[in-house]
Design brief:
By secondary structure, the chain is mostly beta strands. The protein has one domain (2-96). It contains no helices and 7 strands. Strands 4, 5, 6 and 7 form a 4-stranded antiparallel sheet that branches. 12% of the residues are buried.
């Protein structure tokens, strides 16, 4: 897995962070979702009207903590203005559960083996 930053030629002022994968380090690298890297969804989405509304440049993620306290930490720089224009830049931290780089989203169904719920509440995220 890897992260790639993509300059958006359509808007001419945004930089997107996309998740990619390859069987070998030398590639070929492909987006985790979508047909090509240009149209793939953002791994770290730009935040409308936020400090990271226009650009995101991510560093290499790393594991922080151990056991049930473990998390993936991903520092990134976000900017609230165009790539080649005036902007304020900020340092941010995104966290994920360990190895939490993939998810199920969108329409459709997801089938799992039968579960026995022994508590009053079951939360699925």
């Amino acid at each position: 897995l890897g992260l790639v930053m993509v300059f958006d030629r359509k808007t001419g002022d945004q930089v997107h962070c996309r998740l990619v994968h390859a069987a070998k380090p030398e590639g070929p690298w492909q987006p985790v979702e979508g047909e090509n890297i240009v149209d793939a969804p953002d791994f770290l989405p730009l935040g409308p009207q936020e400090f990271d509304s226009h650009i995101i440049f991510a560093a290499r993620p790393f594991r922080h903590g151990s056991g049930s306290d473990a998390a993936e930490w991903l520092y990134y720089m976000g900017g609230n203005g165009p790539h080649d224009g005036v902007r304020n830049s900020s340092l941010a931290l995104a966290t994920l559960r360990p190895d939490g780089y993939a998810c199920v989203r969108g329409n459709g169904t997801f089938t799992s083996p039968s579960l026995s719920v022994t508590d009053e509440l079951l939360t699925v995220t």
